[in-house]
Amino acid sequence: MADEAAGAQRDWQQQVEEKLVRLVTELRRQGLRVTAQRLAIARIVFENIKEHPSFMQILEKVRETMPSVSPSTVYNNLQLLEKLGLIKSFDVAGETRYDNIHPHINIVCLDTGKVFDAEDEDESREVVQRIEKLLGGSARVYEVVVYAFCGNEGQQDAAREASGPG
Ligand SMILES: [Zn+2]
């Protein structure tokens, strides 16, 4: 498998399509129904997963195209996607955020509440492997979260442009 080199270059939309194919495969394997609504919700989740969305953010996105969808339907679909191993979740300041499943480093800014992935994937992989080695046996890292302060508390919109003192 050459998915390491290819993975970095693969188009994001292509990755979404692949996840949907995997979802259909998993649903069939488990004897669960493959409905248009389920696939539409999953597509929205996969398309927005890089933003580490909360449940409310996903619900809002889904309602842009399905205004009458109930929160419990969206929630149940999220639970299912997580159970099938297609997404994962972790808590940020008491709020559940959803994320890609591949092991990587997440950086949580405690000033703005923003969550983003460490950009260097090779470096992230190296850290993950080192932690797994440290834990020994068949240890598998689920999620690495780094908490930091960007120093722009209360300036959520300006946080991206500000690059600190200097
Ligand atoms: Zn992440």
TrEMBL record:
Coiled coil spans: none
CDD domains (alphabetical): Fur_like
InterPro entries documented for this protein: FUR, WH-like_DNA-bd_sf, WH_DNA-bd_sf
A Pfam cross-reference name: FUR
Protein name: Transcriptional repressor
